Amino acid sequence: MIFDTRTLVLIFGLVSLISALILYFFYRQQSVIPGPREWAIGAVFQALGALFLLTHELTSPLVSIMGNNLSFFLSYAFFYQGIRRFIGKPMEWKSTGMIIILLSTPLLFLYHSSEYLSERIVLNAFGTGLFCFMSGWVLFREANHRLPARTAVAIVFLAIGMLHAYRLYLNLFLPHPIDTHLLQESSREHLIFIGGILGIIVVTSGFVVMTSERLRNALQTQIQQLGRANRVADQTLKEQKNFLAMLSHEFRTPLGIMKANVDAVLTSPTARDPFIDESLERVQSASTRLSTLVEGCLNDEWMSNTIESGEGHYARVNLEEILTQLADEYSINHNRAEPLPTIAADRYLILILFSSLIDNGCRYASSPSAVKVSGAAHEEWVTVEIEDDGPGIAPEEQKQIFDKYYRAKNGNKKPGAGLGLYFVKRITELHGGTVTLKSNNSSTLFRITLPLNALGPAQ
User: Fold this and answer.
1) Per DSSP, what are the bridge partners of residue 345?
2) pLDDT, tens digit (0-9, with 9 covering 90-100), for 283-300
3) In 3D, which of 364, 244, 253 has the Cα closest to residue 296?
4) Can you say how many angstroms the Cα of residue 394 is from the centroid of all Cα atoms in its chain?
5) Disulfide-capable partner of 348 in 34, 192, 245, 326 (CB 3.0 to 4.6 Å)?
6) Using an 8 Å Cβ cutoff, are 107 and 61 in contact?
7) Quick one: CATH architecture of 5-230?
8) What fold is seen in the domain 312-459?
9) Please, are residues 374 and 412 in contact by the beta-carbon 8 Å criterion?
10) Total Cβ atoms within 10 A of residue 221
């Protein structure tokens, strides 16, 4: 044998001390995790047990034997309690303490002679083996396929327990010859200490891996919970967006009608009472201010989020019904040779698309009746044109008119945030269509071309 028993005990003690330091610093890093503190204490008692073995010649037999055995009992008892805490079970110091007392009491009568060496080894092997089996069993019961490290550590404890059971068998049926030395030079003792050294290394590594595995599993669980929460939040946000779209449209349309009618009355040559004119002007001012508020607070935010994310609820939409409804609300001309077909689109976005163009035309036209809406169906496309007799858009501005926040020079006195035509272009593109502009000094025409059957946003 390369090493004698004393050297193996020294190595055993050093490995136990290193294990205690590793587990202590690991506990300080992961103090919120239950278990590592008890494991570090158990490793300290294991190193203390090796120290009592090494210094048996410097102390009395009672101190050496009781200190050695109690240290190992307490070591594996702390390992057991730490495992129970780690898996969420309460500690059982009452029953554990009774086991330690029952195993330690006979040593008070068996310490004074080497004739009782086998009996002392039997008690030590029985106690440490029992705690190993208890640790392995309670850990094995809580193991599952998602936590393989628990199974591995459980197997290690059961293997150490089997090693002590083998030691127990040898000393019951093949006892040591009487020797005056506490540290026996025999192959069986060498095997026990070598197995103990390997056990400490594997158990320490297992504790660290097992804790890391738990943290990883907890992190994965939190990520899953966060994912579910995000999905709920996204669904809620979508519902909120749809509500804002509906609210914006329901507010915007009657406000536009109110303003158009007030404008029509104010421009009428019929003589009226000055009080009525003043009241109508106040209604006009209030409706304009409220329309701007609706545009800015409701429509713009929802539209920006929806368009930038490319989200929408796409289904078959009756385009003829939408254009007829808007034409009636704005009191404009809707010219058509035949009804327009249904298209695949998001109804709210299509409403905003055409209401924005019609509202834009009504702002710059000489009167709402001067705004014309026409449409035509083709084999795979449908075309809708909105034309007004306003002052038109300068050629140098036509390339910028669809830019975000851009406003034409002749529209600076009109209320708005410069987002209407930007939304028009983005909504059209989301549906796989195109928007074109034709304008001169006396008219402006927007042509929207949309596919009939392209469900979902364009890629």
Assistant:
1) 315
2) 777 777 666 656 655 555
3) 244
4) 51
5) 245
6) no
7) Up-down Bundle (1.20)
8) Heat Shock Protein 90 (3.30.565)
9) no
10) 11
